[in-house]
Amino acid sequence: MLSRKNKLLLYKLLSLFSVVRGYNILMITLAQYLASIYILAPDLPLRRVLFDPNLFLIVTASALVIAAGYIINNFYDAEKDLINKPTKSMLDRLVSQRFKLTTYFILNFLSVFAASYISFRAVLFFSLYIFGIWFYSHKLKRIPFLGNLVSATLAIAPFFVVFVYYRNFETVIFVHALFLFLLILVREMIKDLENIKGDLAQNYRTVPIRYGIRLSKRVIGFLIVLTLIPSYFLITYFDIGYMYLFFIASMLLLVLFLILLWKAKRKKDYVWLHNILKFIIVVGVFSILLLDVDVVLHRIA
């Protein structure tokens, strides 16, 4: 049996893991490596990609900045989350705000330190990334639609830095990136509908609060239609191996999403819609392996 002190320590570790959303960071790290292996540098030997010290430092710096970003976002949203996510908020509060801020600065320092081993440009990028996340959390997230755009842009930044590192400028990569960006943008706007009660109480000027739920749904619907376009082009015009199965399934799910969106009225409905988008994104990460099954089997062998 754990002692009371050890139980408290365990709860605090779980709280910190909840604040930094460790599961999201693990998924982003996996996605960066899979994208590097099968999309950005498919011609390089697996060992060379996996044991590339610069790639490891880029992924590590990204993970540290993202973790710090979740902390500062949690810091600014503490009151709002009490309304929108009471259970999670109570767990998050096991760690003091002072400890969170201290951890925030330490993680950002470590990320820049890791980037300094790559190049000055890497230091500059991650410094700007840190500032961008803070400025978004402090100011921009309260501005309707602009906050959503900036949030989606910040979410794909870790993939952008890997893309620049490998200097692979093939069109198919930009189409993949557009699909992911639009999907994340839709997710951000669904979160505004999901969290409307807390946003309203804390005077957040999100799209549904400023312009109404009906207009917000129309914008989301338009973005979903836009998301179908890169999906169609990836299936029709590019050689993406068996990954076309993922995009066909995604298109079907997004059509279902549209139907459920117009019927949605309660928070529970928007949570379901949010989960559909998260499911597509997570499955999308693993479906990268379907780009070239022969290469996957050869590399495993």
Tell me the major beta sheet.
none
- Discrete helix count: 16
Mean pLDDT: 86
Helical percent range? over 70%
| Distance between the amino and carboxyl termini | 44 Å
Secondary-structure content class: mainly alpha
> How many beta-strand segments?
0
Order of helices and strands: HHHHHHHHHHHHHHHH
| Radius of gyration computed on alpha carbons | 20 Å
Approximate shape: globular
Q: How much β-strand is present in the residues? A: under 5%
Q: Which segments are poorly predicted (pLDDT under 50) over 5 or more consecutive residues? A: 295-301
CATH architecture name of the largest domain? Orthogonal Bundle
> Which fold does the CATH topology of the largest domain refer to?
Tetracycline Repressor, domain 2
Q: Quick one: CATH superfamily of the largest domain?
A: UbiA prenyltransferase
Provide the CATH top-level class of the largest domain: Mainly Alpha
Keywords:
301 residues, mainly alpha, Tetracycline Repressor, domain 2, 16 helices, disordered C terminus
Characterize the structure shown.
With 301 residues, the protein is mostly helical. It has two domains: 19-168, UbiA prenyltransferase (Tetracycline Repressor, domain 2), CATH 1.10.357.140; 170-301. It has 16 helices and no strands. Helix 4 (53-76) runs antiparallel to helix 9 (146-166), helix 8 (120-138) packs antiparallel against helix 9 (146-166) and helix 10 runs antiparallel to helix 15 (267-287). The protein is globular, with a radius of gyration of 20 Å. The N and C termini lie far apart (44 Å).
